[in-house]
Amino acid sequence: xxxxxxxxCKMIENERSLNSLDQEVITKFSFLEIQEATAHFNPSxxxxxxxxxxxxxxxxRHTQVVIKMCSDTSQYYQEVHIASMLRHPNLVTLIGVxxxxxxxxxxxxxxxxxxxxxxxxxxxxxxxxxxxxxICKDTCAALIFLHSFxxxxxxxxxxTPQNILxxxxxxxxxxxxxxxxxxxxSHTTGDFSAESDVYSFGGVLLRLLIGQAxxxxxxxxxxxxDEDELDDALxxxxxxxxxxxxxxxxxxxxxxCEIDISNRLDLQSEVxxxxxxxxxxxxxxxxxxxxxxxxxxSSSLDRSPGEEHPRPPSYFLCxxxxxxxxxxxxxxxxxxxxAEAIRVWLxxxxxxxxxxxxxENSNLLPNRIVRSAIQEWLQSNES
Length: 383
Prior knowledge:
six-stranded mixed beta sheet; 41% helix
């Protein structure tokens, strides 16, 4: 009886916490919309299934999204709480929720997860070594942000190639945090620590270098270094790695995978400077490859072929003006618009520009979550 009462109190607390986030205007979707977006949870729409529940891809309000249906309330409320707080260009963006069905709606990243790209699933092109170096930097940047988050650092807890997603420009974004019912503090022991994330990061580097999903990648790489045969161990589908830089990257990966926690590198002070230097040294080679047409796809620095700038996510665009929004607001129809554009529309209309249905009122609420995501995206692409 006492357990049930605690669970009921926890549920009330979670609901109050979520409702308090209304001031940030987390977009709400109905269960009917979720059903329609997934063709009533058709198996063909399913992306993944795990202990937390099932994940689907679908189209909500003319936007392609990923819909995560949580299997329990604690998972749902904690993920909403964390995802709504954490805004970074290398973390997957939470777009909205379906509270009645414990659903979480995230941005859709068209290049899928890193694991699928490394094994060239669906006959996709292999990742070039330039793109792999950029993925290392993107992943490191996200972890540094998480570990330094105030007031307590946050550990990802499950950093694997499956949980590193790639957008249209092959920018890496972390997803699927391994959540638990505990204070948001990562600098402890076990899987939920900054040190364990560093170890996992080293494992990701090993996969990017070697390509294979085999055991003892650290031993394979260490033996290759000891015998001066590193080139033979590298994934040759990535192209011709620059030997000096890839040797430094290999030693970096092995240092992150040290069994002794005290010997593992610090991401911000020791890993990040090395990654920046390696990428800077490799930029002339990248430019040469691009001019000769040898690169197989663009990194977040290279952009997409023929593009000067990366494409913004579709939900950054105003449905009326089709430009990136500067002041996004939510209308009563549930859609997000550029404030000036929807106000001009409402002067002569009492219907939704998206559904053509009559609007109950002309109230507009600032969508601070989308605005924050847009600002971060713009800042990361200023150069």
